[in-house]
Amino acid sequence: MLKDHAYIAFSSLRKRFLRTSLTMLGIFIGIASVVALISLGQGMQDAINAQFASVGTDKIIVQGATGGFSPPGQNTAGIVDKHDLKLVSQVSGVKRAAGRLFRSAKVDYADGSEILFTASIPEENEGRELVIEANNIKTAEGRLLKPGDRKKLMVGNNLWTKDKFPKKVVIGSKLMVNGAQFEVVGLLHKIGAGRDDAIMMNEDDARDVLGEPEQYSAVIAQIDAGEIPSNVADRILRALRRDRHQKEGFEDATISTSEELINSVNTILGVVRAVFIGIAAISLFVGGIGIMNTMYASVLERTRDIGIMKAIGARNSDVLLIFLLESGLLGAIGGAIGVLIGIGLSKIVETISREALGSALQPAFPPYLIVGALLFSFTIGVISGVLPARQASKLPPVEALRSD
Amino acid sequence: MGGNNVHALQGIDLDVHEGEFMAIQGPSGSGKSTAMNLVGCLDVPSRGEIYLAGQNISTLHESDLAQIRGRKIGFIFQKFNLIETLTALENVTLPMTFQGIPEDKRTRRAEMLLRQFGLGDRMDHKPNQLSGGQQQRVAIARALAVNPPVILADEPTGNLDSKTGKEVMKFLRELNEKEGKTIVLVTHDDLLAREADRIEFLKDGVIVQSMHVHRRK
Most A CBs within 10 Å: which of B91, B97, B124, B128, as the mutation test of the A interface? Predict the structure, then answer.
């Protein structure tokens, strides 16, 4: 029965193809943006969570605070150095700590030249294990750096899987880093984010070629099992403050726990998502009004059909159902096209992010999103159709038949 | 609508007997369309009563009237009144759809009726792909879809050429004679009205004359 009513509704939509399409525009723009934004937001969150999961929530990162309101050229950024590493590793609740140095370096290979992100690997075993574990560093070919390796390096996944240099980077390739020759001993698996475009070398080598004898870019600390990250973070901050004779609130180092980072990233994502969904909601609202408008026109145009249907036995409820289904279908078809366009948009963003950032932002399309979007657009259609459909169903058959 | 009520019919007393072929004839404005609407349960009188097979329908709600129309009355209109977005077959199945008849059954019946009216090869055509005569035959098939005892024909030949018009009248006569359907024909046309067994002349909302037509069988 429902199927037959739906068919009558559908045949009417098909007849008015152009108007049907234009009416659906509002709905599918709204639905497309909702689908694209939610899938990308979800993808972003998944990626970030995966990153943190690989780091683990038992890690604390200590960095120099960037000088907030200092005049240009006057660097007031705080620093962390070898002394701070020692300090951090002695704080109670810290299991082990490692310092890392990150800088850009000019890398020449086979007539090609690139500015690459260069990361240090600690010399001593405890710190080395921590860094390798926290960053999920694994070799696809060759081996990991060993303590005491000199002028050897490991290269990130993109550097050997993609054509960064005129010649392919393989085990044994000789790379010039800031003028010093290094030999590639390890080709790394994909890690994610910027680290796939980095080269990694032992700390002493890094200090040589980067000209940085004391400083670290960050100190990473792993806490003891059972400790609460934020408590240990407070203790570290207190120790640094005491060491640097600073007052509370005027520290020049920042401490972030994985938890904090996850929370702040999720908060930002949540706000971004809410804003975009708000915009999409406006579009859907306008789309709904468009459907209502079209349905009123449809009722006017089909007054005679309504009269005919009533003459041959259609009850008010039949007419109501036909018009509700018609507006519901308008919404649902618009929604289906919107879902497809939304998926397409997400895929385009995925491709662009892969090209531009080197690592893909993988949009997620959970079933609830697709089904929800379709149901939602159908509901908008039905709701927008209620008033016109009621008007149609209440038309007296004699008057309806008289109209031309 | 508001404003003044116009009494299209006044003090009419009209009996339609089962199995008869009667015509309501009158000039435009005589109230014959109103009479047909009342007989066809499309409208209820502002005063007075209408009985259909013993049931007083004057006080019924629109949805109950729809049920009665759907089961007991087949309409044939001057302008054919087919649904333009549906095919001939779908138009004929429509009344059965509203009666909740299963799909295979109604499709079979609609196909049978269309074939009977010589439209076997036009079933999937939309009304605008059919000639006037073909459209009226589809409309007649539709009127017969639920096999109603009463057929109401409102100027059924008004939009047809005379040859096709004659054909349509022949169908109506056959329906009356062979299948025993009660036919109510509404027309302004004297010749057409004479196809009926009885003619009620209507003028200014009152019946001015009743006449039995004697035809040679």
Answer: B97
Domain that holds residue B56: 21-212
Does the pTM surpass 0.90? The reply is no
Tell whether B85 lies on the interface with A, counting CB pairs under 8 A.
yes
Least CA distance to B144: which residue of chain A? A312
| Nearest CB to B42; choose among A12, A305, A398 | A398
Task: Report d(CA B10, CA B33) in Å as an integer.
Answer: 14
Report residue A72's pLDDT band, with 50, 70 and 90 as the boundaries.
very low
CB contact under 8 A, A315 and B84: no
Which of B42, B72, B155 would you mutate first to test chain A, the one with the most A CBs within 10 A? Answer: B42
Q: Answer yes or no: is B6 within a domain.
A: no
Higher pLDDT, residue A77 or A35: A35
Q: Do B42 and A1 touch (CB under 8 A)?
A: no
Task: Please answer yes or no on whether A311 and B142 come within 8 Å at the CB atom.
Answer: no
Give the per-residue pLDDT at A74: 42
**Distance of CA A44 to CAs A262, A269, A341, Å?**
12, 8, 19
Domain of B178: which CATH number? 3.40.50.300
Q: What is the dihedral of CA A17, A23, A24, A27, to 10 degrees?
A: 180
Q: Residue A384: count other Cβ atoms within 10 Å of its Cβ.
A: 28
Distance CA A374, CA A30 (A): 12
Q: Is residue B174 part of a domain?
A: yes
Nearest residue of A to residue B67, measured between CA atoms: A313
Residue of B nearest to A14 (CA): B85
Tell me what pLDDT residue A256 has. Answer: 83
pLDDT at A71: 45
Contact check, Cβ <8 Å, B67/A398: no
Q: Which of A36-50, A286-300, B117-131 has the lowest mean pLDDT?
A: A36-50
Residue B28 confidence (pLDDT) above 50: yes
Q: Where are the domains of chain A?
A: 2-52+263-402, 102-211
Distant-in-sequence, close-in-space partners of B214: CB < 8 Å, separation ≥ 6 = none
Task: Choose between B119 and A195: higher pLDDT.
Answer: B119
Within a domain: residue B103?
A: yes
Counted domains in chain B: 1
pLDDT one-digit tens code per residue, A346-388: 999 888 887 776 566 788 888 888 898 899 889 988 998 899 9
Q: Please give the pLDDT value at position A77.
A: 60
How many other CB atoms are found less than 10 A from the CB of residue B200? 23
Cα separation, A284 vs B15, in Å, equals 58
Q: Would B217 be classed as within a structural domain?
A: no
Interhelix angle A17-55/A2-15, nearest 10 degrees:
110
